[in-house]
Specification:
alpha/beta, 14 helices, seven-stranded mixed beta sheet, PyrdxlP-dep_Trfase_small, methionine biosynthesis
Length: 397
Amino acid sequence: MSSNNWKTATRLLHDAPNRTPYGETSEALFLTSGFVYDSAEQAAATFTGDVERFQYSRFGNPTVDTFQERLALLEGAEACIATATGMGAVSSAILSHVKTGERVVASRALFGSCYWIVTSLLPRYGIETELVDGDDLDGWKKALSKPTAAVLIESPSNPMLDVLDIQYIADLTHKAGGLLMVDNVFASPLGQSPLKLGADVVLYSCTKHIDGQGRVLGGAVLGSKSWITETLQPFTRNTGNALSPFNAWVLLKGLETLQLRTDAMAHNAAKVADALATLPGVKSVRYPGRADHPQAELAKKQMTNGGSLIAFTVENEQAGAFACLNAFSLIAISNNLGDARSLATHPATTTHMRVAPEERARLGITDGAIRLSVGLEDPEDLINDLRRGAEAAQKSV
């Protein structure tokens, strides 16, 4: 049977085996910085590209290649380049593509470091940038009515889980002559397929669901073979944004259980979100799988499930949020997400602390907002922990 006919769970284990002559069951780990040549002529031909072989692990490595190939097959992309971190993926994708005098449009709701790239870094290089509210369709139409090199969006967004209409934004982006780049971290590769919705480039922090066990950093950029090889690859090779072979091997192990983990985490998150909405001390709950999410119908159309992230707001602003977090005995305080263990953070003082207060308010990131990444624990234990937190928030005045 062709691998094209295999189901996802099978492909996560068996796609792109790339076995060595030793016939190992687990993927081989090539912990090497460089490679040797049979002759000076072979070395010269390798550097000119006349011979295709590995030359240096910053350029390519067998373990990293296996990870890239398997992730590309999973995503339905022609090619993939793995990077040292998720932010390495975002920065490389944008900086390799955009030039001085060109224009970048982005959704207003971005992870703090992505927001800094768009609003602080790109303008330093003479690149015009504009932010658009994610659900403002007229705003997107206006912003993309003139030439644009790239558009960057998150859907669902960090941390308040806005869901953006990827197909609509993709169509406008292409009319403006640009590429649509989608940060798909919150949905995960199995929760949403941006390329099928018209996106050109998909970005991941592999540190999140793909590893999913808090072990390593990594990122990935996926897109067409021509764009990856002609635009992105020269940039990453020459700037040194390479994933280590060891991290690639760990991420391959993460892919093997990705479907099991993300399905279970989404199932848990749906139960937890429903319970959170009933707890005294909790003012509001945002979860893409709930009917009361502002873009519930769009989420149902674009995503296979509601995902593992929940945003909720407690009483008494920052004092209430801190009391809630400090009352947890099971849920850990951490700014990571997509982990097998449930994690919670206070975005206003952590991931989005450098976003101006007025901008945070516009995004709905209040001082009482908490981002919860639901893990693999029994949901009843998580609900009990959240009940303690909500009670503590109520008493924090």
